[in-house]
């Protein structure tokens, strides 16, 4: 059923796209449904140009006939549409379950607006049940990990950090980085955590997306609702 809800949210967001838009295109299962919905509109004559947030999205969008470019060619975008692993009432997000958080954040930051598409299971009162991805450079991994654990301890958060993919074959992002997933359960001060994590040498970025989303379409048993940040 959640796949049907994701599809409903994705198709609702596709209705907001108008000809001439410069569009950031997200990554993940819900974003892929949006790509299919967008491609159908493009086939009907919609004129847009997109910047994909991952190689996976680039391949899919290109195969479906969506015209693509890069942020170097088009550094200002009108709208990004992307999924989320968690969202709260302020439209603070956890993203990065698919490993594309850095490019997703760069693209969202270059956009005038960001619409989040999700099924209702992604709505939470407080962020943190979904593990927070922290993207790190491979060099000095143990030192970076220790610094992250120190921040978590200082903030009274659980010190649970897992290297995605494991030590034998770590997951590599499109940028060639590793991801440490922090199992925190409840993030009561996401702003402070975000600032402290990104200040650590070796941390590239993290999956806390704060003050980036301007609207969300969330689908559930009652249909698709529009969520604006409180």
TrEMBL record:
Enzyme kind, highest EC tier: isomerase
Gene3D superfamilies, A to Z: 3.30.70.260, 3.40.50.1360
SUPFAM superfamilies associated with the record: D-ribose-5-phosphate isomerase (RpiA), lid domain, NagB/RpiA/CoA transferase-like
Known EC number: 5.3.1.6
Active-site residue list: 104 (proton acceptor)
CDD domains linked: RPI_A (cd01398)
Keyword annotations: Isomerase
Record: residues binding substrate: 27-30, 82-85, 95-98, 122
Its job: Catalyzes the reversible conversion of ribose-5-phosphate to ribulose 5-phosphate.
Binding partners and assembly: Homodimer.
UniProt xrefs under NCBIfam families: PRK00702.1, rpiA
Descriptive protein name: Ribose-5-phosphate isomerase A
Organism the protein comes from: Roseibium sediminicola
Lineage: Bacteria, Pseudomonadati, Pseudomonadota, Alphaproteobacteria, Hyphomicrobiales
